[in-house]
Design goal:
Strand content: 25-35%
Oligomer: single chain
Number of strands: 4
Number of helices: 3
C-alpha cells in the first residue's frame, strides 16, 4: 500500500459518480516522491507525499528533526528507529 513515510497519508477509497449517478468503486493514491533527507547526520531515502516534500525542501536539519518529532505517531518504523537512536 502506498503511504507517506512522514505524514502517514495513504490511499483512500470511494465511489466515482457518473452523470447518470451510477456508482463505481475507485481509489485515490497519494502523490509520493522519493527523496533523501538527513536525519542525525545520516542520509535516508524516504517516500513522501508532495505536501511534505514542499515543507522539507530547503529546510535545515534542525527544522527537519522538528517536523519528524511533530509527526512522530505517523512515522514509518525506519524513521522511528533513527529518531529514537
Amino acid at each position: 500500500m502506498r503511504r507517506c513515510e512522514i505524514s502517514g497519508k495513504g490511499t483512500v477509497t470511494g465511489n466515482q459518480i457518473s452523470h447518470s449517478h451510477r456508482l463505481t468503486k475507485r481509489i485515490w493514491k497519494p502523490n509520493l516522491q522519493s527523496t533523501k533527507i538527513s536525519v542525525k547526520g545520516q542520509l535516508v531515502q524516504v517516500k513522501v507525499c508532495t505536501k511534505v516534500l514542499k515543507t522539507i525542501k530547503g529546510a535545515s536539519e534542525d527544522q527537519i528533526m522538528k517536523i519528524l518529532r511533530s509527526n512522530e505517531k505517523t512515522l514509518s518504523p525506519k524513521l522511528q528507529k533513527l529518531l529514537n537512536a
